[in-house]
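Q&A log
Question type: sequence-to-structure
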Amino acid sequence: MANFYNDNKDLKFHLSHPLMKKIVSLKEKDFVDSAKFDYAPVDFEDAMDSYEKTLEIVGEICGDVIDPNAESVDKEGPQLINNEVVYARGTQQNHEVLTKAGLIGMSLPRMYDGLNFPMVPYVMAAELVSRADAGFANIWGLQDCAETMHEFASEELKAEFLPRFAKGATAAMVLTEPDAGSDLQAVQLKGKQISASYDKDTDTYFLNGVKRFITNGDADISLVLARSEEDTADARGLSLFVYDREHKAVKIRRIENKLGIKGSPTCEMVFTNAPAKLVGDRKMGLIKYVMSLMNSARLGIGAQSVGLGEAAYREAVKYAKERVQFGKAIIEFPAVYEMLRMMDVKNKAMRTLLYETARYVDVYKAYTFISEDRPLTAEERQESKKYQKVADVFTPLLKLVSSEYANSIAYDSLQIHGGAGFMKDFPIERIYRDARITSIYEGTSQLQVVAAIRGVSTGAYLSRIQEFDAEKVMPELEYLKKMLQDMTSEYQKMVDLVNEKKDPEYLDFHARRLVEMAGNIIMGYLLLQDTVRDEEFKITTELFIRNGRSENKQKADYIMNSEIKDLGIFKFQN
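Response status: OK
Response body:
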């Protein structure tokens, strides 16, 4: 049967990146667990073998179970019965199979029954699940909540909640409110401490209010962002709480009827004196904990987007080979094979950005956990800060680029299917609908630009590009490097040109153009590095760089021919 890991050699290529040796060493803390757990690796090769075998299991489950269930799950969807969300039959089967395989809580330490996997193989598993069914990927991927608790919760809370994930506990990030949307600092849900009889041993709070658009809202374990401080209206009054569904103090008002990812329940939740426990420190809910969770969430949407792109591309290739027009398969027509080639190029570009970003997150998170055991050396502190700063600007870039690419690839795949793709007879109709949400949730593309523009204004993107440029390539690849150097020079000029205006609104106006210019250069360099490791990437790299160069020239031309006064043309007058 199908194995979604073994049939894509690009995954094994990215898993074997040279930086993995450092990541594994940091994550395994020099393999100390091998003395305590018989399934813990004893060295780097043992760890990599474990990742490979686990991903093969994930790939097999995706090909044999999750993918075949996707169509029925899309039709059936979850139901609300007696204030309980009941998954579609296929969703239940998917979750049961993955739980039995020990694939819930993959990144958790072994002391909590996890696999202690780094982000790279975990994100790779998320890509595989997303390729099989992007809606189910939301349910499975919310084990990110466990990672947040592992990072910030007390030892007591970790001992209480984390082992439940390996047993199949589901999770939810309960952030959004009807009037807050993406503006999370406007969250009003109240977290009131038990007054004089406050019990320090149980550390219980009571939550009241409404949350909306909550993915997997009736989960076993929910992380809830709530306003704990009276007379506050900004992020400093928000704390993070963990709520256990066993309390039955939350009413599920409805499951939203959505365009896509229909197997994943999106709920409106009403909290009425719901007992919950504080995660970490008060007032740090949004400022620290949710912001950290966002890096993982953006990686998750990146993986989901790459999985969707891969699924859409494969459906297009399959159809183009089978569909005959004017006496030959349509894949032989230039108008079609050009589209297919560029879909594949986009897939490979966003995939290399995905795993580069995952490696950054891996390094800084590993140092964070090591620092709990011993003080970091000056060199380790410096390296940790470097990787965290890069991760903070790469995650929004990844989310922006990958979600837009996924939509573009799904659009082109449906186009290649023609009228047949508009019908429910082919998977692309579902994939197309599922892809649309990726550029909306966990922060729209427009909000990702707001986060990513810091990479432009602080010079973080340029600094990383210069580090890429310092790496040597073979003489036969120098012409590609020269193209990237010219693109970098053009990008620098545009940044300077916009900054010279000293107008924040003008910078905001051109922010997306500048971020996307930087993204094209960064992905070009990453593909060039991939080509150094494997010459099979050369055609992909050249096509991407040539296309990126054209896109960047167009953006630069627009910037050079615009003035501050032009902004008024776009503004709507009341």
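Response note: The chain has a mean pLDDT of 93.
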